[in-house]
Amino acid sequence: MLESTLGLEIIEVVEQAALASARWMGKGEKNTADQVAVEAMRERMNRIHMRGRIVIGEGERDDAPMLYIGEEVGICTREDAKDFCNPDELIEIDIAVDPCEGTNLVAYGQNGSMAVLAISEKGGLFAAPDFYMKKLAAPAVAKGKVDISKSATENLKIMSECMDRAVEELVVVVMDRPRHKELIQEIREAGARVRLISDGDVSAAICCGFAGTNIHALMGIGAAPEGVISAAAMRCLGGHFQGQLIYDPEVVKTGLIGESKESNLARLKDMGINDPDKVYDAEELASGETVLFAACGITPGNLMEGVRFFGGGARTQSLVISSQSRTARFVDTIHMFDEPRALQLK
Ligand SMILES: O=P(O)(O)OC[C@H]1O[C@](O)(COP(=O)(O)O)[C@@H](O)[C@@H]1O
After folding, report:
1. Do 222 and 106 contact (CB within 8 A), yes or no?
2. Which pLDDT score, from 0 to 100, does residue 159 have?
3. Is 62 labelled as part of a ligand binding site?
4. Where does Mn(2+) 2 bind (predicted)?
5. ipTM above 0.95, yes or no
6. For residue 256, what pLDDT is reported?
7. What are phi and psi for residue 296, nearest 5 degrees?
8. What is the pLDDT of residue 60?
9. Which of 265, 218, 209, 267 is CA-nearest to residue 238?
């Protein structure tokens, strides 16, 4: 049901967010680049015949006026929905969104930003707290063989065996953060090559699921909500993804991670997470029977082109991945702004 009814619609949702955000590329205003993407995504989502609930979004209701966690989206959330929505459309679905993944990348005109979302039936996506997450992504051939609890050196050796290549031929993406100093050193000493990124680890994780991207692993700590979205894509692709929540501010060194380890543990308990050290795999983070993932490039990236404006229009490239049909479709769209623009928005 999800893919046939929502497949095309969710492409338009990420396209509209990317188009809006791309107007702010290189303007040095990351909050605006994010805000316009949020508004565009929400506006398009609310025209879809579905009954959606945001499980990963812009934050708690008090801080985020739109696409906040718990917000209901889609026409079929209206009270009179039974009059115009068919029974399939009344089934509740959960949605994880990141309308502008890599706000700094957009603001400074750098590669790798995208508008992204994942959908599943109710309860099918892990409602991750706004914490950090240790992540390990790797290609399908290494699935279940590499393990986040092993050292980077061990995992690289396993990957080299599964992928039939020397460790020196592997490329590992790591976020360029002080917390990764030792990890980077270890990967280099093991012989692999490191690609440091300033932002945007969703794209890096997903690249591991595609042959030919020359990205073989993502290692290190990034944001937990982004981890769930990455897991949704990797679940559909059959790639390896594991995540472990990080609740100790000492581990992260920089960034927003609550006041203390104790208060973070208490927060996790309140959320019903009783084993804070649990290692989640892709099938647990995105456990729904059907999972759909969609992304649209804002700036150019390893998987997709960014938005390219031209007189009277723009061209976008999106990716939609489905666990149902086991497909990953790249969609190249030309948006004509002159006359059809009115059609797009109304
Ligand atoms: O910058 P931090 O605090 O290390 O967080 C890393 C996370 O931030 C991101 O780079 C996204 O940043 P934005 O929220 O600005 O889009 C993620 O890709 C990554 O998981």
Report:
1. no
2. 98
3. no
4. 98, 101, 226
5. yes
6. 62
7. -135, 130
8. 83
9. 209
Q: Which atom of ligand 1 is nearest to the CA of 102?
A: 16
User: What's the alpha-carbon Rg for the chain, to the nearest Å?
Assistant: 20
- Which of ligand 1's atoms lies nearest the C-alpha of 133? 20
pTM for this structure? 0.94
Separation between Cα atoms, residue 180 and residue 107, nearest integer Å: 24
Separation of alpha carbons 315 and 328, rounded Å: 19
199 lines ligand 1 (CB under 6 A): yes
Question: What does the buried/exposed string (b/e) look like for 284-302 if buried means 16 or more CB atoms within 10 Å of the residue's CB?
Answer: ebbbbebbbbbbbbbbbbb
Pure H helices in 108-162 = 152-162
Domains of the chain (ranges; CATH) run 2-122+290-345 (3.30.540.10), 132-285 (3.40.190.90)
Beta strands in the chain (DSSP E): 51-56, 72-73, 92-101, 114-121, 132-138, 171-175, 193-197, 217-223, 240-246, 279-281, 291-297, 308-310, 313-322, 327-336
Residue 292: closest CA among 224, 225, 235: 235
Tokens 């300033």 -> residue: 198
d(C-alpha 84, C-alpha 88), whole Å:
12
Rounded distance, CA 84 to CA 205, Å?
Answer: 39
User: Is the Cβ atom of 173 under 6 angstroms away from ligand 1?
Assistant: no
Q: Could you give the CA distance from residue 158 to residue 155 in angstroms, rounded to a whole number?
A: 5
